[in-house]
Amino acid sequence: MGDSPKALSYYEKALAIQQQSLHSNHSDLGNSYISIGLVYDSMRDYRKALSYYEKALAIQQQSLPSNHPDLDTDISTSSPSRIAYQYETIASPVRSFYENNTQQPTYISFESIPHSISKEISLTPPFQKKLPIIPVAILGFLEIFGGLIVLVLEILVFDIAVGIWCGLVYALAGLATIVLVICTDRERHQTSAVLIFQIVALMFTITEILLHIDFYQKRCVTKPDQPSREASYQCQILLSQIGGAAIVLISSLIFSIIYFRVTIIVLKQPHGTFNISNAMNLTCTLNNYRWNTTGITVLDISFLYTPSDIYFDSNDTLYIVDESNQVIVKLLKNASTATRIAGLVLSAGSNASQFSTPQGVYVDSKGSLYVTDYYNNRVQKFVNGSTLGITMSGINSSAGAALNQFNGLRYFAVDATETYMYFTDPGNNRIMSYQMNSTTGTTGQLVAGGAGAGNTNTQLNSPWGIYYLPTISNYLYITNWGGHSVMRWIPGASSGQFIAGTSGSNATSLSSPTGIRLDSFLKMFIVDSVNSRVQMFCYNNQTATTIAGNGTAGNSATQLSGPRSLAFDSSMNLYVSDTANRRIQKFVKL
């Protein structure tokens, strides 16, 4: 299970920072809530886990449009579980299997399922919402009633001392049952504890009934020729005590039957370990992730010449890097005209208002713009609409391999708390990390590659695109432009892991991949630049599906030509920078 308390501590610290710096419905808060929930889930504290999943759901409901696919809560069909069902299936993976036994339960990641638990998850029979509340509560009240009868009658007769203990046990068993259904979530360990009370009560009731029947036979049956008022009274007391014990006996038996019936239903299902990759891949095999393959041009050569990276902010404003025109433009939601926000048109240079072939773009939660400036080997920050950039990393017009230099910057990624930025440095075949408050000349940290160009697991080969996955390990997914592959790397590790791609044009191949994104199901979307297509790889699957372009360069609505980057709006519509066609294409989510 790992060091869950330590992981929880770090997640809570990150959440505290986010809560101070981000607006209340920012998606990164949802990611943090999910991460904390997953840690509680691994610690088997399901109630706390569910509370965090519900907080994440609330954020999604506020920040996403009502028709967003992640808000589809239909769990009655064979479609994958959505956000509203996600927290329940993670906490109780078997339960979704019982309710829909035609498929395995689905786990949704919100881009934050820790890899340490993403391969196999132990399946423990859950009991949440399994025991019927009203019948079990009635049984508890009956046991308390029966216990009180036995206690009162025992006190009246001062005869059979065992009855006092029996009455106490009955009352405790009934009280435990009431507490179970009213004050808890009826989880397995709580239900099992109540069952122990019931079994003990069952043993006491059988013992007491046998004793009282024996006394009744001796006093009331074998001596009928010696009737007296006192003897008759004692016989009535004995019968009443037997009746009270019988009430408890029947209640305990019914509770035990209910418990074991639920247990048998659970244990009939296959459990032990569950391969989460199969569940993730349901989102691909069920064909619910499809886009119209005919693109819509949202911007063309009238506004762009060589579009490179694209990025959506939380308001669905699209930011586009036009590397040949040396500018950054933005396109408001539903607008048809773009606006220049940084750079001087066709004016390459190295001063604060210029770029020299800009590449990557990002806008933080405060509205500041970040741009990687390829030939100037620097990262520029534009604060709150300013057209004068501040160099936050790199040394202006100084290429090199030192830790405060770059050698040709491409794309970059930002962590969930907007603390660190990760830059692809293709000329040095490495990934560099800088804090977002860095200034020019600041020494960065080498977090991946740096061992020369190559295709081994310790090397990168002209890295271009990068995606940060906020998990326990904080994976970096990197496109190897020169290696025609995708690598996954833990920041600071000496080696990475091959994920997908070999040189070629078939479903398992890539040719000079550039942009990369992952969605909430851990599906990976790759811009396969030379093959002029966008490829979707399901979780833990090295065979891709083409979702945009047809593998042949062209300028028709169904084709792409040398695409560079991709982005999704809040409705999961796909946007692609169709670089050689000098346009931005939109592929509508079906």
UniProtKB/TrEMBL annotation:
Gene3D superfamilies, per the entry: 2.40.10.500, Tetratricopeptide repeat domain, TolB, C-terminal domain
Keyword line: Membrane, Repeat, TPR repeat, Transmembrane, Transmembrane helix
InterPro entries attached to this UniProt entry: 6-blade_b-propeller_TolB-like, NHL_repeat, TPR-like_helical_dom_sf, TPR_rpt, TRIM-NHL_E3_ligases
NHL-type repeats, residues: 349-385, 551-590
Segments crossing the lipid bilayer: 133-156, 162-183, 195-217, 237-260
TPR repeats mapped onto the chain: 30-63
Domain of life: Eukaryota
One function term, GO molecular function aspect: zinc ion binding
Protein's recorded name: Uncharacterized protein
Protein's organism: Adineta steineri
Taxonomic path: Eukaryota, Metazoa, Spiralia, Gnathifera, Rotifera
